[in-house]
Specification:
By secondary structure, the chain is α+β, with helices and mostly antiparallel strands. The chain contains seven helices and twelve strands.
């Protein structure tokens, strides 16, 4: 078994109202890549925010006193801190240079997922408003244009508790279940699995992140090809997954809050 990671590097710098599905297909054609059944397209969340016009003009923000206080604690710009507060349901933890928040979507991550990289000076991109809907829209457009059955994952790069460094994670999905519950399956020694769940969408996002990069790579979309569990996990008309929400642990079961 093997998978391929195919980075699309012919997509131009994105702007509001660009047709990303069309740009994906054009880039694939230039690179002599044909979309196939079972392909999983992993798309950087910054790309989605750009085409949806989801920008924050930090220069226009007037910080609150709470933002000013948090800026002193973290060394962050007060205008950025105010944007973080605006995008958050809850402040979970404040560190020397970070603010861990629960975003409006329910994700717990640093700085509400606001990204200042790969955008113009003084601007920032928050997470897409509805990443599942964004993934579904692109999936349906590409399927309509190609006739191929695919899945789309919207990815972000986030840190992790107790481990240094950032990894790719899924923040939106369509066409594939985000989590694989393998409870009841048999292991190599004939025992039934009791609690095993696999965060499939996160693992695929992390693999794509190796190609996508974080600096000037210019690869906002990666095709994951050859994942042999796609058929098992794909959504169909009879059974829909709960999208990205299936990966979010309810607060009452969160041992760290």
């Amino acid at each position: 078994m093997h998978i391929q990671l195919l980075g699309l590097n012919k997509i131009p710098l994105l702007k509001h109202d660009d047709d990303l599905s069309e740009l994906i297909l054009e880039s694939a054609q230039i690179q002599d890549i044909t979309i196939e059944n079972g392909d999983i397209l992993v798309i950087a969340e910054t790309a989605i925010s750009k085409i949806e016009g989801n920008f924050i003009d930090l220069k226009s923000i007037i910080p609150s006193q709470k933002a000013e206080d948090l800026a002193l604690k973290t060394g962050k710009d007060p205008q950025l801190v105010e944007a973080i507060l605006d995008q958050s349901n809850e402040i979970v933890k404040v560190g020397h240079d970070f603010i861990v928040c629960e975003t409006r979507h329910g994700f717990v991550c640093a700085n509400a997922g606001i990204d200042e990289s790969n955008v113009s000076e003084g601007m920032a991109t928050p997470m897409p408003t509805n990443p599942d809907a964004s993934a579904k829209s692109i999936k349906e457009k590409i399927t309509e244009k190609t006739g191929k059955e695919i899945a789309v994952i919207i990815s972000d790069t986030q840190g992790r508790p107790f481990r240094d460094g950032a990894v790719g994670v899924a923040v939106g999905v369509s066409g594939i279940k985000a989590i694989w519950d393998r409870k009841g399956e048999i292991d190599l020694y004939g025992r039934k699995l009791q609690t095993t769940k696999i965060a499939v969408a996160d693992e695929l996002a992390a693999s794509a992140s190796l190609i996508m990069g974080q600096a000037d790579e210019g690869i906002p979309v990666v095709i994951v090809r050859g994942y042999n569990s796609f058929e098992l996990l794909k959504e169909d008309s009879k059974e829909r997954s709960n999208g990205i929400k299936s990966l979010i642990r309810p607060k009452k079961f969160d041992a760290f809050r």
